[in-house]
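Tip: read the tokens left to right.
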């Protein structure tokens, strides 16, 4: 006899195949640039908190859409060096700490 928990889980089971393994492999293969992307995101978050800014405020300062700021803050943007330099210049912040990558 099935328990209520098993019945509940079976009734709410997704019909789609899991992408967990493929997602984990992708994260592992892209770990180097994802780590740097998270550094940019964290630097911007610190900047926002220190200055009481919203995503819209940062979007105006970067001359991008608020949706792109949200994407940046997710830590999953594969930036070019030029993009990072532009962010640093426009916000007056440093996104990478040299000691973190030594």
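Filled-in amino acids:
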């Amino acid at each position: 006899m099935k328990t209520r928990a098993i019945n509940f889980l079976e009734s709410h089971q997704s019909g789609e195949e899991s992408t967990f393994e493929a997602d984990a492999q992708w994260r592992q293969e892209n770990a180097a640039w994802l780590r740097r992307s998270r550094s940019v995101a964290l630097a911007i978050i610190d900047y926002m908190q220190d200055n009481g800014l919203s995503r819209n405020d940062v979007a105006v300062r970067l001359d991008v859409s608020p949706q792109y700021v949200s994407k940046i803050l997710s830590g999953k943007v594969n930036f070019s060096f030029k993009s990072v330099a532009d962010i640093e210049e426009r916000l007056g912040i440093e996104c990478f700490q040299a000691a973190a990558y030594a």
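Residues 96 and 102 are 11 Å apart (CA to CA). The chain has one domain: 21-95.
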